[in-house]
Amino acid sequence: MIETQDPKGMSREKRLKSALLFTKAQLKNETDTLANLANISAVINMYMDDINWVGFYLMRSGELILGPFQGKPACNRIEIGSGVCGTSVKEGKTQLVDDVLSLDNHIACDSASRSELVVPIYRNGEIFGVLDIDSPSLARFTELEKQYMEELVALLQESL
């Protein structure tokens, strides 16, 4: 079992650093991808404030399929190019969206979500899936979260 710290009272950056450290420990101690994705989504949910959904969508047969997550039930399948997750895959880059309602192709799995951060995950140069994080607040995610979540995904990619 990996020891966790109580995130109450931590600065936003300290929370993100703790999530990154926990992820490193998780990936060092476990080789099963499903177990890692499940625990990493729980870690992000624990250490990142003001979010209402965090999880993974995995590439299967040309579309994104729901993987381990924390939050309300979500969309099971997302087409490439649809919504923030599908756009991240299509463009091959992180998407940081301040107001998801401003997007024509937004997929509203949870009507409370207002901003979103999605980081693509690669294995052997091919898309493996995405890390998706939603918040009920407008412009919740900054370059700080983007940087730390891209670092976290880089660690995950090394383990795949």
Offer a few descriptive terms.
160 residues; alpha+beta; single chain
Description:
The protein has about 160 residues and is α+β, with helices and mostly antiparallel strands. The chain contains 4 helices and 6 strands. A hairpin with a 2-residue loop joins strand 5 and strand 6. The longest helix has 18 residues.
Which helices and strands occur, and which strands form pairs?
Blueprint: H1 12-29, H2 33-47, E1 53-60, E2 63-71, E3 77-79, H3 83-91, E4 95-97, E5 115-123, E6 126-135, H4 143-159
Antiparallel strand pairs: 1-2, 1-6, 2-3, 4-5, 5-6
Brief sketch in words of this structure:
The protein is α+β, with helices and mostly antiparallel strands and 160 residues long.
> Could you say which overall geometry the principal axes of the C-alpha atoms support?
globular
Report the radius of gyration as a whole number of Å: 15 Å
Derived from helix and strand composition plus strand pairing, the structural class reads alpha+beta
Number of helices: 4
| Helical coverage, percent range | 25-40%
Largest sheet properties: 6 strands, antiparallel
Low-confidence parts: none
Q: What's the arrangement of strands in the largest beta sheet?
A: 3-2-1-6-5-4
**Span from first to last CA?**
21 Å
**H/E series:** HHEEEHEEEH
Strand percent estimate: 25-35%
Mean pLDDT: 93
Please give the number of β-strands. Answer: 6
